[in-house]
Sequence to fold (579 residues):
Amino acid sequence: MRHTIIAITAGAAMLAAACGSSRRIASVPAALQQEILEQRADSLFFAAQRSKMLGDYRTAITQYSDYIRLNKKNATVFYELSRLFTEVRNPSYALGFARRAASMDTSNKWFQLALADAFTMNEMFDSAAMVYDKLIRLSPLDEDLLFNKGMALSKGKHYAAALTVFDTLESRVGVVEDLSYQRQRIFMHLGMADEAAAEVRKLISQDPAELRYRGMLAEIYESVGRQGDARKVYDTILQQDPYHPRALIAIANMEKRNGNEPKYRAYLIKAFNNPDYSIDEKISFVYPYLQMLETDTTKRDEGLLLTGLIVESHPGDAKAYALRADMFSQGEMPDSALVNYRKALSLDSTRFSVWYQMMWLYSRTDQQDSLLRVSDHVIGIFPKEFMGYYFNGLANYFKQRHDAAIRSLNKALSIGGERRFVADVYALLGDTYHATGLHNSSDSSYDMVLSLRPRDHLVMNNYSYYLSMRGDKLDKAEQLSRRSLELQPESPTYMDTYAWILFRLGRYREAKEWIEKALQHPEAQQDPDVLEHYGDILFNLNEKDRAVEYWQLAKAKGANSIGLARKIAEKRYIKSVDR
Fold:
């Protein structure tokens, strides 16, 4: 009670002070109050300007918004807010403030331009075109305004009107690449490939040495299926530059479509051997093959050919080996992938993504010693990388160094990572705590996984089985196991778990039904744990001879649970807390 009285008394004192303060302000002359407010507004304005210049846009927005509460008549502040909301990609707010600024000062060109930008950002292209039209009437010689009007009309799909605007602009400035490109784009939208090609030919006539224009022309022909016309243009390019990479690759692809594999490879090798064709461009060309491998394994050989060519052309660049390693990894060739990851790291050890891929492969291929060695190194050089500690925890778990695993996994959690990876850490912590007998910590870790991934059937199965082994929370174990079966109804492992939990609950006949469902699967027929469980269930249903038969079969398959030898020798079920 005493604390409550103090709080109320303190509140009353604060209220009295506030009331007293209010009376004092009321006594200040109105002119002085206005001067104070203006000074406060000016301070906020300059603070906002400073925040904007420092790139702290969100703070600037807050400061300008506070300014508006004191002075709603400054159009410049509404304009500044519009530009800031444009920077932080908030289209609706940008438009609202731009409209306010433009309506407050209709003659200010910059306010009107901000309004046009906001309309464009909100995909209100007709409204943007109207603003540009208004500005053009005020500044008829402004070529940028005319171009922007044409762009707005084009984006609004008013193609004829846009072409008229671009025609007018071309009559003033002549043939210009940006203008020709926009006209070409409109013609392609209209299905007028010849007119689009004519636009590019104007650029070629103006600058015959610029091969990029010829490439644009060839791409137009390719896009409408005119392969012969495209090939002629690419041949012309190669007459001027025999090692032009894009022309060589385009022709290579044509030869591939024609089924001419030797020519395809010859053109490709020539392109990739060009030292002026940068490694980043080559990687951009090859990278889609990695994605295609997920659905089309036939792309593997082609991807490996291309990455091999990159390595040959750039033998001292780590990126070349990293990409080739990725291709081997995606192509299910882990040994070759690891060789190339090691080479990449020998050239550049600063890229965590490469270390990550290598640790992932070590974990996937059960190379525990290598995973432990590399992850120890990685957490030393990348102490703030979540996944380094995860893999280190995994390696220590594999090596049964549970205390070290727990330390690394908890360190990963303290750093934080993506939700799905955090769930993986908690799952592994659950397994590790279980192995050390810290059952409360194990249970809470599994609960955390299921709060993050409510459909994680693997954790449901493990968690429920461990509970049943301890004879703890069997009702919860039954619910979890049943849910895992709903998610994976054909899993014999989950059927066995559910049968065993039912057994521990004393529901022997139901347990027999489920374990016999499991034993319909060949893998369960070879699983010593399932066979031993079946023997336990049979014994408790008074089928003692068959129980002994399955215990013996389980032992022959490698079962080594505590008490199995006694069960066989004494021909009776012996309850065991742990298996």
Observations:
- The CA atoms of residues 332 and 499 lie 36 Å apart.
- Residues 1-26 have pLDDT under 50 and may be disordered.
